Amino acid sequence: MTVYVDQMRAKYGRMLMCHMVADSDDELHEMAAKIGVARKWHQKPGTPHSHYDVCQAMRVRAVKLGAVEIDRHGLAEFIKRKRAALQEPA
Fold first, then answer.
1. What is the average per-residue pLDDT within 13-19?
2. What does the alpha-carbon distance between residue 2 and residue 27 come to, in Å, rounded to a whole number?
3. CA–CA dist 62, 73 (Å, integer)
4. pLDDT tens-place string over residues 24-79
5. What is the DSSP letter of 34?
6. Which residue numbers delimit the DUF4031 domain (predicted)?
7. DSSP characters over 47-83
């Protein structure tokens, strides 16, 4: 299982934000807790688009703790894989 951070740099006030996603929501929440992001900022839970928007300082922390850096194409492929996995019969 892996946590990923993309290279997006969207403005939110004075901050620049990116997406943090993971293979599972549990792993995503664990990384969020480790880097100091509150659970209330979790977006689109239970979907292939489940993520946190994190500022650049939190992104650096996540990478230091093992998050994998991906570009926007990598993020799109990640979401496709999660969507396909959810559609597979159990």
1. 96
2. 8
3. 20
4. 999 999 999 999 999 999 999 989 999 999 999 999 999 999 999 999 999 999 99
5. H
6. 3-81
7. STT-BEEEEHHHHHHHHHTTPEE--HHHHHHHHHHHH
Q: Token pair 């996540």 is at which residue?
A: 62
Which amino acid would we find at residue 35?
Answer: I
Instruction: Please name the residue that has the structure tokens 């894989």.
Output: 81
Sign of CA dihedral 51, 6, 31, 12: negative
What six digits make up the tokens of 70? 């991906």
**One-letter amino acid of 78:** F
CA distance to 26, 49, 64, per residue, from 2 (Å): 11, 15, 13
